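pinned: reference chain
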Amino acid sequence: MVLKSCIFSFSILLLTACGNGSTKENEVIPNETPEEKGESLYVLNCASCHGEDGKLGSSGAKDLSVSKLNDQQIEEIIRKGKNAMPAQEAVLETDENIKLVIEHVKTLKR
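pinned: its structure tokens
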């Protein structure tokens, strides 16, 4: 019985000591290139209507593969929305994220 108590105590001590108390959960972030982050943001926030390849067009979404819009025009639509597309500025949160999505959208053009 004493041996079981010692083993149990040692196990609890070991588990407590192995915790990551010095590292915050948010500090462990996978490294993504800017291209990968732009694609991830696009897939999470845009692909449901535009499709992963930009050609889906559900709910009236435009086919991004044939878009002739320049960066400034794309940014304005992302920020303010257009027709059935709601503004995405708050969803994307930062200017950097918006720029990354714009760069990804440009890769969808033929």
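why pinned: The longest helix spans residues 2-17. The mean pLDDT is 82.
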